[in-house]
Amino acid sequence: MTDTENGDCKLTKEVGRFVKSHIIPKSLTRPNISGNKFIEKKVTNRGPFYGKAGDSWYDPNIVTQKGEDILAYLDTLAIEELRGLGLVWSSHLFKANSAKQLNSLRLVKFQRPKLIRKYFLSLLWRAAVTKIRHLVKLI
Predict the structure, then answer these.
(1) Using CA atoms, how far apart are residues 7 and 62, in angstroms rounded to an integer?
(2) For residues 25 and 134, what is the distance between their CA atoms, to the nearest angstrom?
(3) Are the CB atoms for 38 and 79 separated by under 8 Å?
(4) Taken in order 69, 135, 39, 50, is the CA torsion positive or negative?
(5) CA angle, corner 67, sides to 55 and 88, nearest 5?
(6) Domain boundaries, the chain
(7) Which residues sit opposite 8 in a β-bridge?
(8) Exposed e or buried b per residue across 44-67, where buried means at least 16 C-beta atoms within 10 angstroms of its C-beta
(9) Are 1 and 60 in contact (CB under 8 A)?
(10) Do residues 25 and 90 make contact, with C-beta atoms less than 8 angstroms apart?
(11) What is the SS3 assignment for 106?
(12) For residue range 69-85, what is the model confidence (pLDDT) as tens digits?
């Protein structure tokens, strides 16, 4: 299937046109220098090849627009909180020491722990439902 075909949304169970859905949100996988590309192994019916990608893997056969809107909502709110705590690359706090010593832990208190939990579950769900062969082998 392609992103122009209809099918059952794996998230909402509604029938509709599929849209591209990132397995890992784009905001976590952009190259650190604008315009740079990642080298990505792609697997097709004719075999594997290497191509360039501007961000992470996406699957065009998981969700319809309604499902993607739900995932995008979770991504946006969760990444905003993770960024505020310095837990993602794009945070201005990321380069600060995360703990006082190298072998110690940093405890964080989430403002919305249920949202963060749903977000991480959504990442696991996306990885579980994708049929992208080279991703399934990694999981």
Answers:
(1) 9
(2) 18
(3) no
(4) negative
(5) 40
(6) 6-132
(7) 15
(8) eeeeeeeeeeebbbbbebbbbeeb
(9) yes
(10) no
(11) coil
(12) 999 999 999 999 998 88
- HSE (side-chain half, CA atoms, 13 Å) at 48: 8
Q: Which residues, in sequence order, are CB contacts of 72 under 8 Å at separation 6+?
A: none
> What amino acid occupies position 67?
G
For 114, other C-beta atoms within 10 Å of its C-beta total 8
Structure tokens at 77: 């709110």
Q: What's the sign of the alpha-carbon dihedral 131, 133, 136, 138?
A: negative
**Cα distance between residue 45 and residue 53, in whole Å:** 19
Beta strands in the chain (DSSP E): 6-8, 15-22, 38-44, 47-53, 58-64
Query: Phi and psi at residue 17, in whole multiples of 5°?
Result: -80, 130
Predicted structure pTM score? 0.73
Q: How many CB atoms lie within 10 A of CB 73?
A: 13
AA identity, residue 116: I
Per-residue model confidence as pLDDT tens digits over 17-60: 999 888 888 777 666 667 777 666 666 677 777 777 666 777 88
